[in-house]
Design a protein that fits this description.
By secondary structure, this protein is mainly α. The chain is 70% helix and 0% strand. α2 crosses α9, α5 packs across α6 and α13 runs antiparallel to α14.
Amino acid sequence: MAELRRALGRWDLTAIGVNQVIGSAIFLLPADVARLVGPWGPLAFLAIGLLSMCIALCFAEVGSRFDRTGGPYLPARAAFGRFIGFEVGWMMWFTRVSSQATVANGLALALAFYWPPLAGGLPRAALIAVLTVVVTFINIRGVKQSSWVVNALTIGKLVPLAVFVMAGAWFVNPANFSPLPPVTASQAGAAALLLIFAYGGYEVTGILAGEAADPRKDVPFAFIMTLLIVATVMTLTSAVATGVLPGIADSRTPLADGAALFLGAAGALMVSVGSSVSMAGNNMGQILNGSRSLFALAENHDLPRWFARVHPEYRTPENAILFTAVVALALALSGSFVFLAAVSAVARLVMYLAVCLATLVLRRRTPDAEMGPALFTTPLGPVIPIVASIVATGILFGATSQQLAAGAAALVAGAALYAVARR
């Protein structure tokens, strides 16, 4: 039976992680945060970036123990057994496929600004279908080809942000950062939860370990670099947007409005194009990572082996890719993704908490055939995994009743699927 091709380097993995974190939200988020905490926004971005790094360090440590496809599914399985591992892997795939549907619709709406018929009907459906077919074709043709496209789209989304930051820095007005208003605990908590979700996505970085040239060394590197790059970009973007745009909290498109002030209409267009490129890249990454989550479950006999079939020539998990694409397309065209997006809060809690606790559990385990010794160890002993676990648990307290109900339903569905698969 054919095996996956190990063709990814550490910077390929980093680009995949950055691509998943930086989506369309960064083009709107500075205003959303400013509405909660005012000019404290850039510091909020930096603070949550540091807390997210605690979780990423846990992912880096457990990732250095495995050289197979699976991401958070593998350490959760090793630490807590097959059922917990399955639920983590199932929620990983579930969020990827629903996110793919969400982003495809978001791209259609963004392009509808320039051609209104794309907002609905047959033109919208055709665009979503063509986008899905294209990214599916690229994914099946090879992981290296997929990584080239992801690398290009990641650069394409970072360039407009870099231009915005470097050009906008000359137009920052220090008066926009004062006076710093008092912030209540509820406002700070709401901003923190919003940003924890905004920083989410880096958990996919280790999913493709089975296609990396030196996964046990490159995966930890990629996790750390992903968070460093993302935190830097998000913090600087927020700082410049706050500094150049008076009354940023009243803006619906803060980066486009800010760019229009110092670069004119061309600047606003640059940001709009960057947002569309960002969504296209995110969509490409969703199917790349979602299909590998499904493949990993089948490779470890937690789903039918049909999902683990590898294309004999392209060495990609073709059945998992096709199934993920078909489900995402159905969700996108039916509109079901609107409800399924509520699952993301509980899904992220499950994945983050499982990995943070697994970091501590696996330190006491003897390496075996499935798990090697950690080639990277998070500093400060148990402190960072404990802090990371607290941060992850905070998601639960900020989740709405709808999110909790949707997440519980997804977990129950996963348990039922696990029972069927085991039979």
